[in-house]
Amino acid sequence: MGRSEFEIMNDKPKAPRPRKRWRRVLKWTLGTLFLALVLWGFIAYWTSTNDCDRYATTPANPMKAVVYCDYGIANLKLQEIEKPAPADDQILVRVRAASINPYDWHFVEGTPYVMRAMGVGLRKPKDTRLGVDFAGTVEAVGKNVTQFKPGDEVFGGRGGAFAQYVCPRATRAVALKPANVSFEEAASVNIAAITALQALRDKGKVQPGQKVLINGASGGVGTFAVQIAKSLGGDVTGVCSTRNVDLVKSLGADHVIDYTKEDFTKSAERYDVMLDNVGNHSLSECKGVLTPTGKYVLIGGGGAGDQGFLGGLGKALWAMVFSKFVNQQMGMMMADANQKDLTVLADMMQSGKLKPVIDRTYKLEQVPDAIRYVEQGHARGKVVITVE
Ligand SMILES: NC(=O)c1ccc[n+]([C@@H]2O[C@H](COP(=O)([O-])OP(=O)(O)OC[C@H]3O[C@@H](n4cnc5c(N)ncnc54)[C@H](OP(=O)(O)O)[C@@H]3O)[C@@H](O)[C@H]2O)c1
Question: Which SS3 state, helix, strand or coil, does residue 54 take?
Fold first, then answer.
């Protein structure tokens, strides 16, 4: 039977079904959030600035320091800036030597890019000073400082170390330099040796007689790691290229694998601890060289030219997931510079158990060249800056 005209006129449009309505709400919400995020990113990028204006005024009490107002090695400048004055809990150190770490080029280049979003500065570096590791002489101390006095020779880590003076806090990463260690040697210790110590002692928990593999045994961290693993009683295998085989042996390694001739992941040998300074093998390949209860400690990896958005962090995140599905402990470690461990390392150097390996030295005005050299990824031990 046909519908009457009255029935047809009273036809109401059907209300959208609940599922369709939710889909529309979700679409609009996500779209709005995405737009807000893009807008926020755009504003944050273009308003990202730093304190470079302060370098425009002539310093009343000048010192030389390396500064950079924009990302990129070409933007590094040696400039006269205001000499710092120690706060009540700080010491004023006249820097005699500093050292370069991959850490420095990460900041100069602003890579991996995720770092920029994590507070380092989206468009420009927020902190315009460079360098961390230093050694020098205490020139003055703040009124609350009891551990150090003027004339003490110290070493440690403090931001802005590529300069004639730094002001570290007396209770933080600074310790007395042993007399048998030069300023150049002491300046090379902070980041690299602390990383090696904490990776092997605290994360790897190396025990006497355990087999320890160090991938990247000839670089800044590696040269310290070989010696520290030996002093913890490990049976140490170092991985390096042909030209560094003798160096790694001379540091005490029991076995050396030349990576240009042999792939350690294809060997039948199994290790209790693997320290990975290079990150050039997959996690499943690295797992394959561990004993069933072995530990894999990743500290970094990736060259200056291939950092991209996540750099080594991508592998670190993957390791967190991967380790949930295997028996071995596998993960990344971030070093924590502190006075206690610097003192441990000072004692080791004093007793002759630890000797920094210095590849090259540069002057303060040559910091850009020194960073370019370390960026190539083939330093033999540490690269040091001498400061006059
Ligand atoms: N997580 C942390 O807290 C932390 C702290 C310090 C450093 N790091 C990171 O750790 C990594 C190492 O630092 P570093 O100061 O030791 O760097 P580095 O001084 O620049 O070391 C480079 C070394 O890597 C070696 N290497 C390059 N390719 C290799 C390969 N395929 N197999 C084995 N060795 C290879 C080189 O030896 P050859 O010349 O023989 O190739 C060179 O001796 C960097 O990625 C750094 O950013 C992380």
Answer: helix
Closest-CA residue, ligand 1 atom 10, reads 300
Q: What is the pLDDT of residues 85-94, one digit of tens each?
A: 999 999 999 9
Ligand 1 centre and the CA of 314: distance in Å? Answer: 17
Q: Is the CB of 241 under 6 A from ligand 1?
A: yes
> Does residue 10 carry a pLDDT above 80?
no
Q: Which atom of ligand 1 is nearest to the CA of 259?
A: 32
- Three-state DSSP at 364 gives helix
Average confidence (pLDDT) over 157-182: 98
Amino acid (1-letter code) at residue 96 = R
Rounded-to-integer distance, Cα 154 and Cα 143, Å: 18
**CB 379 less than 6 A from any atom of ligand 1:** yes
Distance 200 CA to ligand 1 centre (A): 16
Is the CB of residue 377 below 6 angstroms from any atom belonging to ligand 1?
yes
Whole-angstrom distance, CA of residue 365 vs CA of residue 362: 8
pTM listed for this prediction: 0.90
End-to-end CA separation in angstroms for the chain: 105
Look at residue 300 in the predicted model and tell me its pLDDT.
85
**pLDDT at site 1:** 45
